[in-house]
Design brief:
10% of the residues are buried. The mean pLDDT is 88. The chain is α+β, with helices and mostly antiparallel strands and 101 residues long. The chain has a four-stranded antiparallel beta sheet with strand order 2-3-1-4. It starts with a strand and ends in a 23-residue tail after the last helix.
């Protein structure tokens, strides 16, 4: 399973910029990898672990702005179509159960 977090947080005030920075740093410390600006994803072992991760993100979200989460299977994630740009090889996008690095 993959958890994808999309967020659009206000940065017009000093407090807004602090909230944005704190939330982004929280995601990175929690193991999320940036897919593109304001879109982060994390690999979860199963649906139970994914639900726990999503609850952790909910508890650490700022009050203002827009934050959305999406849970997808590895097979769905592997079917992402890149129209412009290239795949970031930092993330594993294979549906194989065993990946040798």
């Amino acid at each position: 399973m993959r958890i994808i977090v999309f967020f659009d947080l206000p940065v017009t005030t000093l407090e807004g910029r602090r909230n944005y920075t704190a939330f982004r740093k929280f995601l990175v410390r929690s193991g999320f990898v940036m897919m593109q600006e304001s879109v982060y994803c994390k690999l979860a072992l199963n649906a139970v672990a994914a639900t726990t991760i999503m609850e952790h993100v909910r508890r650490n979200s700022p009050q203002d702005g827009l934050i959305q989460m999406l849970m997808v299977t590895e097979k769905q994630y592997a079917n992402i179509e890149y129209i412009i740009g290239e795949n970031n090889h930092e993330t594993i996008d294979s549906s194989d159960r065993l990946v040798v690095l």
